[in-house]
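BUG: 3D viewer hangs when loading the predicted structure for this chain

Environment: internal workstation, default settings.
Expected: structure renders.
Actual: progress bar stalls at 90%.

Input used:
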Amino acid sequence: NGTLEIKGIKTQLELPFTLSISGSDAHMKGEVVLSRLAFNVGDGQWRSTDFIKDDVIVRIDVVAKKSL
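Structure tokens produced before the viewer hung:
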């Protein structure tokens, strides 16, 4: 849980994710759907959802290694 800010617009967001740890490697993957119009992404002629959907899928894939 946290605050996401895009173009000065803040919202509380929950990012569901999975975390797997194997030895010294950690792998985190998550996905959330955002409304681009809620953050004023796509102004003017791009505001229409005729060609570009309002829903945007944000996928996160992070791999970390423990340093020695």
